[in-house]
Amino acid sequence: MFVWITNCLAAMAVSALLIVVLKKVSHACSLVDYPDRRKLHDGVVPLCGGIAIFAAFAMVMLVQGNEPLLALNFWVGLLITIIVGVIDDRHELSATKRLAAQFVAAIILVNPLSGSTIVTGIALPPALLDISFLLLTVVAILFVVGLINSWNMIDGIDGLAGGSAAVALFWLAVVAGWKGAGELVLPIVVLLAAVSGFLAFNMRSPWVARAKIFLGDAGSTTLGAAIAYLVIRLSTHTHIAFSVLLWIVAIPVIDTLSLIVRRLYAGRSPLAADRSHLHHLLLDRSISPRTTTNIILAASALCGAIGCFGIIIEASNYLMTVALLLPLAVHSAFVFLASEEGTDWVQQSRSVAVAQLNPIPPTPIRAEIGMAHTPQPPSANNNTGMFSDAV
């Protein structure tokens, strides 16, 4: 326990110190984010938060002699991800190049040659084991790429991506400790501590009016990659069904899948930027950025708690998997009601009902009043990634 405490304090302190140092050199390195018509944050903000987090994490884990806890493929995969993210922060790479690099990093992180992949909790006949291994390896690679971009896509408001990572890492540490995976608890809590050092500068609070530093693509994508790796490794080493562990990352995954489906349904590219994320919809309801972040983090914490509780009481894998439809349904209902399509549908339904009761059409003045548009407040944003949805 003493080793955990000292390593965590060291990671938090080093992360905060690196942020202070890197803020001073970020302009010279062109690692800054400028406000524009989509990104309405105040002033020029450094994009070195992710570098500070993972530099602190690596220093503590490697200098303290804990490198055997994490395999070489973990460090190589994360290094590729963060390098590509830094290049993208500076030069804005094409979506094709970013996606290709992410698949390379995902293949390395999953490491199919190791002979292990995600656990499903389903007993299969021996004849299907080889086929299932191949299919599950593909699923694992897609999961890593998906979570990389999920974290990149939620990085659109102060404290959200880092806070979501902190929530996920907390529940992963609880599950790892409960299942006796002590070799995973230390790296998880050290990474959590490094993220906490960053959040002191990024999360809005009574002492921090606005984020003083952003994760950048390097930070958000690498956080997604690290969390995906930890989920897969926890599944393989503790034999927890992969679908059950999805509760811990349910909100980012559901929001990303929902957004992609809605864009495709509307005939738009899934890579196109818009204001359809959960945090955008909350902001457009005149909810403050700080409250919006807290609402989403509370939902993430609740989902993680449900998943952790299900693991502790050894609930049925089938039950826990099917129960994921509940947060999906709640998210879909809110998105429908809060989105422009849902609002138009409700208004149209009400108009039809009024017309049936009163065949006399409303006067133009009443129609104009009924359709009056309320201007929406701007919101802070720090997303510049592959699926960038900055406002």
Automatic annotation (TrEMBL):
<feature type="transmembrane region" description="Helical">
    <location>
        <begin position="43"/>
        <end position="63"/>
    </location>
</feature>
<dbReference type="GO" id="GO:0044038">
    <property type="term" value="P:cell wall macromolecule biosynthetic process"/>
</dbReference>
<feature type="region of interest" description="Disordered">
    <location>
        <begin position="372"/>
        <end position="391"/>
    </location>
</feature>
<protein>
    <submittedName>
        <fullName>UDP-GlcNAc:undecaprenyl-phosphate GlcNAc-1-phosphate transferase</fullName>
    </submittedName>
</protein>
<keyword id="KW-0812">Transmembrane</keyword>
<feature type="transmembrane region" description="Helical">
    <location>
        <begin position="213"/>
        <end position="232"/>
    </location>
</feature>
<keyword id="KW-1003">Cell membrane</keyword>
<feature type="binding site">
    <location>
        <position position="217"/>
    </location>
    <ligand>
        <name>Mg(2+)</name>
    </ligand>
</feature>
<dbReference type="GO" id="GO:0046872">
    <property type="term" value="F:metal ion binding"/>
</dbReference>
<dbReference type="GO" id="GO:0071555">
    <property type="term" value="P:cell wall organization"/>
</dbReference>
<keyword id="KW-0808">Transferase</keyword>
<dbReference type="InterPro" id="IPR000715">
    <property type="entry name" value="Glycosyl_transferase_4"/>
</dbReference>
<keyword id="KW-0460">Magnesium</keyword>
<feature type="transmembrane region" description="Helical">
    <location>
        <begin position="69"/>
        <end position="87"/>
    </location>
</feature>
<feature type="transmembrane region" description="Helical">
    <location>
        <begin position="131"/>
        <end position="148"/>
    </location>
</feature>
<keyword id="KW-0472">Membrane</keyword>
<keyword id="KW-1133">Transmembrane helix</keyword>
<feature type="transmembrane region" description="Helical">
    <location>
        <begin position="99"/>
        <end position="125"/>
    </location>
</feature>
<dbReference type="GO" id="GO:0009103">
    <property type="term" value="P:lipopolysaccharide biosynthetic process"/>
</dbReference>
<feature type="binding site">
    <location>
        <position position="152"/>
    </location>
    <ligand>
        <name>Mg(2+)</name>
    </ligand>
</feature>
<feature type="transmembrane region" description="Helical">
    <location>
        <begin position="319"/>
        <end position="338"/>
    </location>
</feature>
<keyword id="KW-0479">Metal-binding</keyword>
<feature type="transmembrane region" description="Helical">
    <location>
        <begin position="6"/>
        <end position="22"/>
    </location>
</feature>
<feature type="transmembrane region" description="Helical">
    <location>
        <begin position="295"/>
        <end position="313"/>
    </location>
</feature>
<dbReference type="GO" id="GO:0005886">
    <property type="term" value="C:plasma membrane"/>
</dbReference>
<dbReference type="GO" id="GO:0016780">
    <property type="term" value="F:phosphotransferase activity, for other substituted phosphate groups"/>
</dbReference>
<feature type="transmembrane region" description="Helical">
    <location>
        <begin position="160"/>
        <end position="178"/>
    </location>
</feature>
<feature type="compositionally biased region" description="Polar residues">
    <location>
        <begin position="379"/>
        <end position="391"/>
    </location>
</feature>
<dbReference type="InterPro" id="IPR018480">
    <property type="entry name" value="PNAcMuramoyl-5peptid_Trfase_CS"/>
</dbReference>
<dbReference type="Pfam" id="PF00953">
    <property type="entry name" value="Glycos_transf_4"/>
</dbReference>
<feature type="transmembrane region" description="Helical">
    <location>
        <begin position="184"/>
        <end position="201"/>
    </location>
</feature>
<feature type="transmembrane region" description="Helical">
    <location>
        <begin position="238"/>
        <end position="261"/>
    </location>
</feature>
